Amino acid sequence: MRPDTPAENVDHTAEAARLERTAGLYPEDAEALLLRAAAHLELAGERPAATALYDRLLSSPGALENPSLVRALKASNLWEYGHEAEARAIIDGVRAASPRDPAPWIIVAESLEAHDELEAAHETFTEAARLLLPAGQEPPYATHPVLYGRHRVRRMLGLPHDDWDTRADTLHSMPVTLDELHDPKRVWSLGSDNPAELAAEISRLRAELGAYREALSRPFPVAMLHWPAEELTELLTAYPALAAEYPSYEEHLTSIEEALRELESSGTRNLGIVRGTVPSYEAFAASENTPPEDPSLLPQYATTLGARGRAVSWPPERGAACWCGSGATYGECHGKPDSATR
């Protein structure tokens, strides 16, 4: 589906089938592709079929990149068509697993919120904030919905602002404040006969929709291509002409970190890193009818891997392993202030 295709013009069932076929062609990308297929099935109202895809992923012989995300999506879907007890059990399991990715936390918290389990939703958002938000540091972009969701639930519960609510207010850049957007009384104004009240609510809804569209406008990260040491050696052995792009493995790593920091400082959000392999690069080159020695193919390859869901978010979450594969944490490796100039 093209990004600019209106949602009402999409045949979600057909799109899900297309993504399933694509997953068969690219088994290394099956997880990301089947999750998108399941989302289309949910939009089509085919929730049991979506659950079947989640079960297919969870029972697959290979290790999943994000099993907590798959379980969270399955739980949310199950609850929507009457399987509340099973959904609750899965949600409890996701929370107990304490995933380092914000997405599973957001999905299960919003599922609880959607079913009026506000206290449990608040607890879940708060657990995620404690685990994922680095003290004294700017919250990573992916964690912003944790703060926004927590703020929204606290407004519905009538709780006073705390430090995390203040941080959410600071991060929010839309013209309508979070307090207005999350005002529980807003729903009442939709039934008003007063034109001024309705106009004000339309303005708030437009601001909220603008923020939502902004988030959706970044379906894939701006991705930098990383070749692990053994893959880079194999690449340069097979295609020596690319040596000009990669003088050494150390310079390759440094250039990635420098580029990502520069993009971040310029305001670019949703940055990521994709890991290249020589076989997939050669297959991509063949599909593009371009010789692998052509350096202009490298950024196209990175973009394609990102579009297929292969990117990992940069910078890594606090305490997570460095993206370079050294085994050290990011803060001890390329996350050091002077690491990009080493």
What can you tell me about this protein's structure?
With about 350 residues, this protein is mainly alpha-helical. Helices cover about 60% and strands about 5% of the residues. The protein has helices spanning about 10-25, 30-45, 45-60, 65-80, 85-95, 100-115, 120-130, 145-155, 165-170, 180, 185-190, 195-215, 230-240, 250-265, 280-285, 295-305; strands at about 220-225, 270-275, 310-315. A three-stranded mixed β-sheet has the order 1-2-3, sandwiched between helices. This is Tetratricopeptide (TPR) repeat protein. It holds the Pfam family SEC-C. It comes from Streptomyces griseoviridis.
Biggest sheet, open or closed, and with what strands and sense? 3 strands, mixed
The proportion of strand residues reads under 5%
Q: Number of DSSP helices?
A: 16
Strand order of the largest sheet: 1-2-3
Number of strands: 3
Percentage of residues in helical conformation: 55-70%
- Radius of gyration based on Cα positions: 22 Å
Give me the strand/helix succession. HHHHHHHHHHHHEHHEHHE
Average of pLDDT: 85
InterPro entries: SEC_C_motif, TPR-like_helical_dom_sf
Organism: Streptomyces griseoviridis
Pfam families: SEC-C
Protein name: Tetratricopeptide (TPR) repeat protein
